[in-house]
Amino acid sequence: MALIDRLKYDAPSDTVLVWKFPGEELRLGTQLIVNQSQEAVFVKGGQVADVFGPGTHTLSTGNLPLLCKLINLPFGGKTPFTAEVWYVNKIVKRGLKWGTKGPIQIIDPLYNFPVSVRSFGQWGLRIDDSRSFVAQIVGTLQTTETDRIEDYFAGEIVQRLSDALAKYFVEKNVSVFQVSARINELSSFVGKTIGPEFSRFGIEIVNFNVERISIPPEEQQKFQEILGKRMEIEQISQAKVGQAYTTMRTFDTLEKAAGNEGGAAGALLGAGLGLGAGLGAGVPIGQQVGQAMNVQPQQPSPDDPMVKLQKLKQMLDGGLISQDDFDKKKADILSRM
Questions:
Q1: Is the CB of residue 117 less than 8 Å from the CB of residue 176?
Q2: DSSP helix/strand/coil, 36
Q3: What's the N-to-C CA distance of the chain in angstroms?
Q4: For site-directed labelling of 98, which of 72, 146, 177, 211 has its Cα 20 to 30 A away?
């Protein structure tokens, strides 16, 4: 096989990330031409040796120190030797797609509710460390194109996305149902979280975008039902607390009025309907005492406009309705007052 006197690669398209020069029979004095946005990597016996940046290089023992050490090249002359030469394209590649093929299970930190989410987006890369990239990714392939790298690392992204999303929601205390308003912040957070994993392969993530977080409609419906029941329970609990407070106020007022013979309370007490009698007589007398003390029990009705507005605001904060839906429903409630 004839010795190669000149090494050069003009990529047919920017989709080729790595290309292996077809010949390996080289010699000292060979001209190595590396175009802009390229690097040439010399490999011997599966071990990465020397790396050359853009420019025209004359191969010599002086600029091939690691290769010379591996094959014990003598100084001077035009000694032949064999080595693989890989051309690495270092331009930025954007618009690469990623997405989850199946749902990711996440516990919503705000509502402590399990949610299945799917996510989609785009990302961009640049080969930052040619030596590491060729050693770990390229292997024995003649050519490595963008689609192969996209397929491989899309799986890496999805594999680490679940942990990154869960970490974001917990650290920021954000509900999954509210994340659409913070999609840019989420993108930045996830990109920084998974970036170190790519850097060990010699790849730099130049941009990472989460374009959409989706939740199955049946889970959204289930969440709305559970949230509605939770609101009802909270309203009932608040009503019971209000009743207890009213009762305690009534008891306190009765004690103060026990020595006061005047007024409505005094009249009731004087007629034999004291505190003990009121409690023994049941609800009707208790209500009379409450009326006499001018203390009304607090029992919010589900039809109370305030109750409706509070529930409506909770649904807005939970991301269950839009701001436009909230404004329309609020106006409707207020118009009925």
A1: yes
A2: coil
A3: 96
A4: 177
Give the SS3 label for residue 325: helix
In a domain, 246, yes or no: yes
Report if residue 3 sits inside a domain. no
pLDDT attached to residue 124: 92
| Gap between the Cα atoms of 287 and 223, Å rounded | 40
The answer as to whether 127 is a domain residue is: yes
What is the extent of the structural domain holding 16?
9-89
Q: What is the pLDDT at residue 263?
A: 52
Residue whose C-alpha is closest to residue 297's, from 257, 239, 254, 256: 239
User: What type of residue is 102?
Assistant: G
Distance CA 180, CA 177 (A): 7
Q: Are the beta carbons of 89 and 11 closer than 8 angstroms?
A: yes
At 104, give phi and psi (nearest 5°).
Answer: -105, 130
168 touches 108 (CB < 8 A): no
**Is there a contact between 11 and 19 (Cβ–Cβ < 8 Å)?**
yes
Task: Tokens for 325, please give them.
Answer: 């839906």
Domains in the chain, number: 3
Calculate the CA 150 to chain-centre distance.
Answer: 20
CB 224 within 8 A of CB 115: no
Instruction: Kindly report the number of other CB atoms within 10 A of residue 6's CB atom.
Output: 9
Q: What is the phi/psi pair of residue 24, to 5°?
A: -125, -5
**The model scores a pTM over 0.85:** no
**Rounded CA gap, 223 and 297, in Å?**
33
- Asked whether 95 and 122 are in contact (CB, 8 A), the reply is yes
The pLDDT value given to residue 143: 58
88: buried, middle or exposed (CB in 10 Å: 19+, 13-18, 0-12)?
buried
What CATH number has the domain bearing residue 144?
Answer: 3.30.479.30
Output the pLDDT for position 180.
83
